[in-house]
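Workshop exercise sheet. Pairs work together: one partner reads the sequence aloud, the other fills in the structure field after running the prediction. Swap roles for the next sheet.
Pair: D.N. / O.F.
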Amino acid sequence: MKMTKKFDRLNREFDIEMDINESESNVITADIVEAPEEQVGVKRPDRLTQTDITKDYEYTRGNLYSIIEKGQEAINGILELAQESEMPRAYEVAGQLIKSVSDATDKLMDLQKKLKEVEEEKEVKGPTTVNNALFVGSTAELSKLLKSNKAEQEELNN
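Structure field:
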């Protein structure tokens, strides 16, 4: 007799087939049949697209907003409780909760900075032209060249 129980969902999730047989003496035996090996995990694309980045940003931002809002509600509740009970432990918990909410707001600001950095990386910077003048010759030749350039400059200024 096959039993269908609450673990069937887990068995399907982990790709495990189990045949559970119940004998007359109420001893349950299980035969584990291993599923064929498949590649575990999701293949990631080589580069994230702009829509992936935007979707992740919006999801993370929404979660942080939710955490901050729930934290503020919890702070209000724990402060009321602390004032009514006047117990030091309640005030300690309130202080820890306030710190947690402030950390979440810091993470929200860090998220903004990280998004800006990612967007700056995405911007394609055009090639910059660098003109380096290179003189190949002896110091005497360089000295003559500089003197002739200086003389030309003086003639142009006069």
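Discussion prompt: The mean pLDDT is 79. What would you look at next?
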